[in-house]
Write a structure and sequence with these properties.
Blueprint: E1 8-9, E2 17-20, E3 29-30, E4 35-36, E5 46-48, E6 57-60, E7 63-68, E8 77-78, E9 83-84, E10 109-114, E11 120-121, E12 125-130, H1 136-145, H2 148-151, E13 159-163, H3 176-189, E14 194-201, H4 209-215, E15 224-228, H5 229-232, H6 235-253, E16 259-262, E17 267-272, H7 283-296, E18 300-303, H8 313-317, H9 323-342, H10 353-357, H11 363-371, E19 379-383, E20 393-397, H12 403-412, E21 417-422, E22 435-439, H13 442-447, E23 454-455, H14 457-460, H15 466-481, H16 487-491
Parallel strand pairs: 12-13, 12-14, 14-15, 17-18, 17-21, 18-20, 19-20, 21-22, 22-23
Antiparallel strand pairs: 1-2, 2-5, 3-4, 5-8, 6-7, 7-9, 10-11, 10-16
Helix pairs in contact: 1-6, 3-12, 7-15
């Protein structure tokens, strides 16, 4: 259990701050810390427990989260008005904390769908994927035809999913931006949760379908059809052709069945969004505990959001299986520093206004909480955005922090389940992979219970341990992977959230 006073939570004996469990009025006595609040402290926000001079580092998790920008007294509210960023040395210590995984003697299992090529699915969809925004509408029209009444004939098929986006042209025909888009679309086209896919273009776009297929080493087949509106002869003919192709695929797609398979076939995307001051205390470490369990059972857990591990990357490089893997992460950090500088920004334009309202002050503080989602196992590899993830164990994928873009990279890389923590409240899905939502606090869970799958706020309330909630999450992952619908799936989320990372100018 966390060591929680009646009013506050202390995360480490060396910390300069504690966290308010609920809103505290001015003058409230925090007995264990021997301080009184100087002002009203919102729930999830930080209270100073010792005096700090301007320029002093401020610690939470026994890690630096920023520097005092003015003198801070015991009992003061520590937030954006008196805490800021500053430079400090990180000891990357590549591999210093790496420990080989001790695998479970009896691996967990779930009821999955094994494809002909040996890959394993947790859902059984058909995909209709646009290569460019110009073909987005026909993809939606094709998928719309296959409504619930029609699909009742095929109970083993989860649905027909349109995957559409707002790019694909107005960019160079080669280079990094289009390479990232092609990796993303290619990853979705062959995702194991799609029994088969249609890839539909306009015909004159920069992202030519033939070039996309060639770049990804893909070929047309019975499971991957590709054509364009211009070649087919317009909207009506394209829609009719697409509907006909899906109708031909459905009987075979419906013949699949679930079977008991080891959890090593699961690839879990780890995401946080709408974070608050409790994220790094409850839901993120609980998800980290679940990720550790999955890794010990042979599966893959995928951390990402490079801007949201910034300042805490040294905690990951220390866990790297090799110096080479650790340096791959540092290289991506340097890329981001250069990228934001070129665009006239900075890495500390994060946290968002909602994050700050929830108690997070600097990107350093947010990153330390975000890294907790990755558990404690060794980092086995680092991937660029939407690359196919082939390593088992804990891995990192370079993505932006923006939730839909980040998770799109996970799914393109092969994630067949996603867990998403939130403290402010978020509603999200990511077809074809199911998304499990984890609330950081009980107030959010009660207010938004129809969207939240697990209440990690029990940790903050002192009613459950991180390990207990981690086990609950792991058990739910297995059930959802076996076909149980998550809350976001019950609402039908996931068709509009596909958001590939757009790099470079739109011309």
């Amino acid at each position: 259990m966390l060591q929680a006073a009646d009013l506050t939570i202390r995360l480490n004996a060396a910390d300069d701050v504690v966290i308010a469990r609920a809103e505290l009025p001015a003058g409230a006595e925090v007995m264990k810390e021997k301080v009184r609040t100087a002002v009203t402290i919102p729930a999830g926000h930080k209270i100073a427990t010792r005096a700090l001079k301007a320029g002093d580092p401020v610690r939470r998790y026994n890690q630096i989260i920023g520097f005092a920008t003015q003198p801070i007294r015991p009992g003061d509210h520590v937030h954006v008005h008196n805490l800021g960023m500053g430079d400090f040395e990180r000891d990357y210590a590549f591999g210093a904390d790496y420990v080989p995984t001790e695998f479970a003697a009896e691996p967990a299992t779930f009821m999955g769908i094994e494809r002909d090529d040996g890959r394993v699915a947790t859902r059984n969809y058909l995909g209709v994927i646009s290569s460019v925004n110009c073909s987005a509408h026909v993809c939606r029209l094709i998928a719309k035809y296959f409504d619930d009444d029609f699909m009742a004939q095929y109970p083993n098929v989860d649905g027909v999913v349109p995957i559409h986006h707002r790019t694909g042209c107005g960019m160079g025909a080669d280079g990094e931006p289009i390479a990232v888009l092609r990796r993303t679309l290619g990853g979705y086209a062959i995702h194991p949760n799609f029994y088969a896919s249609l890839l539909i273009g306009l015909g004159c776009e920069a992202n030519q379908i033939n070039n996309l297929l060639a770049a990804q080493g893909l070929k047309r087949s019975d499971r991957l059809k590709a054509f364009t509106i211009q070649d087919t002869g317009g909207t009506r003919k394209t829609v009719d052709q697409g509907i006909g192709m899906i109708k031909e695929m459905l009987p075979d797609a419906n013949r699949v069945s679930r079977e008991e398979l080891p959890a090593s076939h699961l690839s879990l995307g780890l995401e946080c969004g709408g974070s608050d001051g409790y994220s790094g205390i409850s839901a993120n470490p609980a998800l980290g505990a679940a990720a550790d369990l999955l890794v010990t059972h042979g599966g893959t857990a995928m951390l990402s959001e490079t801007p949201e591990v910034y300042g805490a990357e040294h905690l990951l490089t220390r866990r790297a299986v090799s110096r080479e893997v650790g340096e791959k992460l540092v290289k991506r950090i340097k890329w981001w520093e250069d990228y934001t500088e070129r665009l006239g920004g900075e890495m500390n334009n994060n946290p968002s206004p909602g994050n700050k309202a929830g108690g997070l002050t600097t990107i350093l503080e947010k990153s330390l909480g975000a890294v907790a989602k990755g558990g404690t196992q060794g980092m086995m590899d680092v991937y660029e955005y939407a690359e196919q993830v082939t390593a088992k164990g804990f891995v990192f994928m370079d993505t932006p922090g923006y939730d839909p873009v980040s998770v799109t990279g996970h799914v393109a890389g092969g994630a067949n389940v996603v867990c998403f923590t939130t403290g402010r409240g978020s509603a999200y899905g990511c077809k074809p992979a199911p998304s499990i939502k984890l609330a950081t606090n009980s107030a959010l869970f009660q207010k938004q219970e129809e969207d939240m799958d697990v209440n990690c706020g029990l940790i903050v309330d002192g009613k459950a341990s991180i390990e207990e909630v981690g086990q609950e999450i792991f058990d739910l992952i297995l059930r959802v992977a076996s076909g149980e619908k998550s809350k976001s799936e019950q609402w039908g989320y996931g068709e509009d959230e596909f958001a590939p990372w757009v790099l470079g100018p739109t011309m």
